[in-house]
Write a structure and sequence with these properties.
This protein is an alpha+beta fold and 227 residues long. The protein folds into two domains: 68 residues; 148 residues, OmpA-like domain (60s Ribosomal Protein L30, Chain: A). It contains seven helices and five strands. A five-stranded mixed β-sheet has the order 1-2-5-3-4. β3, α5 and β4 form a beta-alpha-beta unit. The chain is elongated.
């Protein structure tokens, strides 16, 4: 009788030991499956990030090619004016710029467009018409020579003169056929020089009109940042 009890107890112990092992195994299986699922999720996320980066790379390459193509097309359309030194076309990452010397457009201390300036500006306007995805920002710049007393009643400082010049350029471009909602007029006066104002040559470089072609998206971002 005692021997039977001992055998039964041993059997029960083995059975209990088997149940514990099965529970541990099932837990290990569950943990392993969860870890595999987590790794698979991370893998999927990384694949999506790589795909997004590839798309961004392709978009940047396309944008760069488009910018270069637009730059080349603009230079070609204005090649005669560029060759004659009447204007300069420059390229930035998301912008194109047409810089014109002030003397071509305006007499000293005046904001009325000269006939010679109108001829050049008309060609510039025709060249810009096709860039419908661009905002056209016209900025007037001056040197630091104070406004003559004879005209201070009209333009008290270089601020007013630079803004008036930019506004008249915008109005002329509108007459050429560029929608006004695509354009912005601004004046920087003497406060954004590209050369020293200590020499006549430097002052001449500073007196200029800058016509910027800015991507619509970038223009909207700049507008929001200024609010």
């Amino acid at each position: 009788m005692n021997r039977f009890v001992l055998v039964s107890a041993a059997a029960a112990s083995v059975a209990m030991g088997g149940c514990v092992s099965t529970g541990k195994y099932e837990k290990l299986e569950t943990d392993k499956n969860q870890e595999i699922a987590s790794l698979q999720k991370e893998k999927t996320s990384l694949q999506e990030q790589i795909a997004a980066l590839e798309q961004q790379k392709t978009a940047l390459q396309t944008t760069s090619q488009q910018s270069q193509s637009q730059y080349d097309a603009l230079v070609k359309k204005l090649s005669a004016e560029v060759e004659h030194g009447q204007l300069q076309v420059r390229q930035y990452q998301n912008m194109l710029s047409v810089d014109v010397a002030e003397k071509i457009f305006f007499d000293s201390g005046r904001a009325t467009l000269k006939e010679s300036g109108k001829e050049v500006l008309a060609k510039v306007g025709e060249a810009l018409k096709s860039y419908e995805n661009k905002v056209i920002r016209v900025v007037g710049y001056t040197d630091n020579v104070p406004i003559a007393k004879a005209t201070q009643s009209i333009y008290p400082t270089n601020w007013e003169l630079s803004v008036a010049r930019a506004t008249n350029v915008v109005r002329f471009l509108q007459d050429v056929g560029i929608p006004p909602e695509r354009m912005v007029a601004a004046g920087r006066g003497e406060y954004s020089p590209v050369a020293s104002n200590d020499t006549p040559e430097g002052r001449q470089k500073n007196r200029r009109i800058e016509i910027m072609l800015i991507d619509q998206g970038l223009a909207e971002e700049l507008s929001k940042s200024q609010k």
